[in-house]
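Let's sit down with a protein and look at its sequence and fold side by side. Please make up or recall a protein chain and show it to me in full. Label the sequence line and the structure token line clearly, so we can match residues to local backbone shapes. Go ahead whenever you are ready, and we will take it from there.
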Amino acid sequence: MTSELTILAATAASIGFVHTITGPDHYLPFIVIGRARGWKLRRTLLTAAVCGLGHVAGSVVLGLVGIGLGVAVGKLEIIEGVRGDLAAWLLISFGLIYTAWGVRQAVRNRPHSHAHQHADGTSHDHHHHHHREHSHVHESRNKSLTPWALFVVFVLGPCEPLIPILMYPAARANVGGLILVTVIFAVVTIATMVGMVFLAERGIALLPLKKIERYAHVLAGLAIFSSGVAIRFLGL
């Protein structure tokens, strides 16, 4: 490996890590959705990994097509910018819809009580949640569209730093370097996404969240909405 390629590989790894860890949209949606829907850690991590793969693949395909057609970097970056805006608005929309659904679930899951009268004249109140008793059963019977919705958003979401990195080895007709840079960037990006989700899940599991469990879906929707707003208006 030449010194130039070594530097490019190290750059791809560092940019992949920094780009991912500084973008909460890369891991926050999986953390909050996984907790709200009661997913096992393995499912949450797998969903993050698959969405991460789609996230990188979208930019790789665009970059390779651009390279093959000889499209200038500037034009590809404009396309990536449009994709970024679209992904941000999709996150905002998804977050709002999920928040509204979460409010509905919270209202239906409002705790209430019934008075039970016994034959001997004694009575007591029975506190319960009608909806909560059946929610997990319905979820297990129906495949959730949530992972697919996240996957679509991540496929459309761009990896802005990737295309300029790809252009350098491509311009030098170094196919091996092109593949190496792409693989390193993809592996680091996906590993960082999964790692952040894993660490957050382990940390959250230690917190006493029983009292706000009823509002888990609302909080998840608001977190996703906030991620979209941060991307669109704060440039994160």
Summary: The chain is about 75% helix and 5% strand. The first strand starts at residue 112 and ends at 117. The two ends are 34 Å apart (CA to CA). Residues 25 and 200 are 14 Å apart (CA to CA).
